[in-house]
Amino acid sequence: AQSVTQPDIHITVSEGASLELRCNYSYGATPYLFWYVQSPGQGLQLLLKYFSGDTLVQGIKGFEAEFKRSQSSFNLRKPSVHWSDAAEYFCAVGGNNFNKFYFGSGTKLNVKP
Amino acid sequence: NAGVTQTPKFQVLKTGQSMTLQCAQDMNHNSMYWYRQDPGMGLRLIYYSASEGTTDKGEVPNGYNVSRLNKREFSLRLESAAPSQTSVYFCASSDVQETQYFGPGTRLLVL
User: Fold this and answer.
1) Residue A91 C-alpha, separation from nearest chain B C-alpha, in angstroms
2) What is the bridge-based pairing of β-strands B43-49 and A19-21?
3) How far is it, in rounded angstroms, from Cα B107 to Cα B90?
4) Which of A12, A28, B68, B75 has its CA 20 to 30 A from that of B31?
């Protein structure tokens, strides 16, 4: 069955520290992978996506993610976190059928001054 | 270019009342979606529309109906609201590469 697992519900990091948010997926075909960010009371904004090619993808706001097929993972990273990065982050997987699009349960990021 | 817009932003209903959530996109996307977001559960797909004139059920369709009015608009109707439908509802549309763009959401409280 297709699914997305984000094992960390809450993460707290200090401003300026590095960040890695984990995402594991189960998908029966070649996956399309996405990371979205949601600020409080807002909709979801696309951070980055992976369809094919280079397994390290760059996104907006200084984020990057690496696709590791052998580990079924697509972890999100940022070298130095800013206070404005505090939000909830969602990993999602889909394929070439739009109805097969699954979201993880989200990771809430808190940033300490 | 407003992207995806949703109305209303917030609504309170009594059990048994009906209402329609409106969604419109100005990106000329073929596909549109309705999700609900509940704490700790991520987003769950209610209905989707691959193109104008077609709609299909997603993961949690019970208690909802949809209408793809034209290419721009996709509405979600609750015929008889229940407290279990208290949630935040998001509309999205997608381009040919399946990247979904989301509206700001509608917060619904059913008493």
Assistant:
1) 9
2) unpaired
3) 9
4) A28
> Chain B partners of A34 at a C-beta cutoff of 8 Å?
99-100
Contact B4 A90 (CB under 8 A): no
Name which of A6, A36, A8, A37 is nearest A24 in CA terms.
A6
**Per the structure block, which two tokens stand in for B92?**
């999205």
pLDDT digit string (tens) for B41-93? Answer: 889 999 999 888 899 998 899 999 999 989 999 999 999 999 999 999 999 99
Residue B8's closest CA among B88, B65, B68, B111?
Answer: B88
pLDDT given at position A30: 76
Angstroms from A44 CA to nearest CA on chain B: 6
Tens-place pLDDT, residues A28-78: 777 889 999 999 888 899 999 998 888 999 999 999 999 999 999 999 999
